Structure to design on (227 residues):
């Protein structure tokens, strides 16, 4: 069965620090990859997505992610975090072979940015 | 343009009671999904629908039923609520294919 692992459950950073959140998935076929963010008390919002092409994708709010097929990874990065980036971040995957395109989510990473 | 709207936003039930959560989307999306979110477990798929009149089971379907009588609505029912169903429920919708899902604001449900 497909699974998604986010190894960092809680991350605490100071403003202006660099961020990298890990995401690994287990599926050998064609995959579509997503990062969602959930601000406190809000719904999930799409940060960025990868379907094909350039493995380095840029999203909103200065976030980017790199798809490394050989490592089954899709890590999220931001060069300099802000206090407003405090949120929970979810990596998600769906299979290009599954016509329902249902998402498999990681368990999430809670990021706290200290001013 | 409201996007994905979930009602109610909060609800407290007693064990054994039944209720229905409503999800409505105004984006003419074909696909709709119900997830539950529990601490440390991310979101898990309960049921989904790839079109009006069709539904299918997800990862954790037990204790839930769904219906998609109209394209814009996707209902999640709890027949006999149990404390293990205390959770935050999210509805999502999308176009067919490899498209991002759009999420509602969630329903926080507590079962006593």
């Amino acid at each position: 069965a497909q699974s998604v692992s986010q190894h960092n459950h809680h991350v605490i950073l100071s403003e202006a620090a660099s961020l990298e959140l890990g995401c690994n998935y287990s599926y050998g076929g064609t995959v579509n990859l997503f990062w969602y963010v959930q601000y406190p008390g809000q719904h999930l919002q799409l940060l960025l997505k990868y379907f094909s092409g350039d493995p380095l994708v840029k999203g909103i709010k200065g976030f980017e992610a790199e798809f490394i097929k050989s490592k089954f990874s899709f890590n999220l990065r931001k060069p300099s975090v802000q206090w407003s980036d405090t949120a929970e971040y979810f990596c998600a995957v769906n299979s290009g072979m599954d016509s329902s395109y249902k998402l498999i989510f990681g368990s999430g990473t809670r990021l706290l940015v200290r001013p | 343009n409201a996007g994905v709207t979930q009602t109610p936003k909060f609800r407290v039930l007693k064990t054994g009671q039944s209720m229905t959560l409503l999800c409505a989307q105004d984006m003419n999306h074909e696909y709709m999904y119900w997830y539950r979110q529990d601490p440390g477990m991310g979101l898990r798929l309960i049921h989904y629908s790839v079109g009006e009149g069709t539904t299918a089971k997800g990862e954790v379907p037990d204790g839930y039923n769904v219906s998609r009588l109209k394209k814009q609505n996707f209902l999640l029912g709890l027949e006999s609520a149990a404390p293990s169903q205390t959770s935050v429920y999210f509805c999502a919708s999308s176009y067919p294919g490899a498209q991002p899902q759009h999420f509602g604001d969630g329903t926080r449900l507590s079962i006593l």
